[in-house]
Amino acid sequence: MFLGKHHSTIDKQSRMHIPSTARNFFSGSVYITQGFERNLWVLSQNAFEEIYKKITALNLTDPLARKLLRIILGGAAILDIGANEEIVIPEHLRQFAQLESEVVIIGQGDYFEVWAPEIWTQQETDLQNADLNIDRFMTLNLFNN
What CA–CA distances, in Å, run from 100 to 78, 93, 114? Predict the structure, then answer.
């Protein structure tokens, strides 16, 4: 499981170094796609296949299901992990997530998110609003008593 917040860089050839704590979690290749916010998802093969199964099981006559397919699968790519523990982020995904030289990597268990630092700061500020979190997460039943 990959957790935590990490900082990394992207060089002029669009190579991003994977944090050392994630190197054992991912092997050989990873899947990358657009996230729901202005971020990217980097997933193991197993995690991507689980999402793929769920998305392709949706009713394709539903316009919302087709949009979800386009978001997740339309811009996705399989990336090899280089000898220096790096991946090359496709240009269209870099542009979508507004990635430049610095990035923030957020562990999400089976995958991680890649954020531009400025956008992550806005997201993190929202996530740290304790009063708002009580209202927005109370219906999720995280702790069943």
Answer: 21, 11, 11
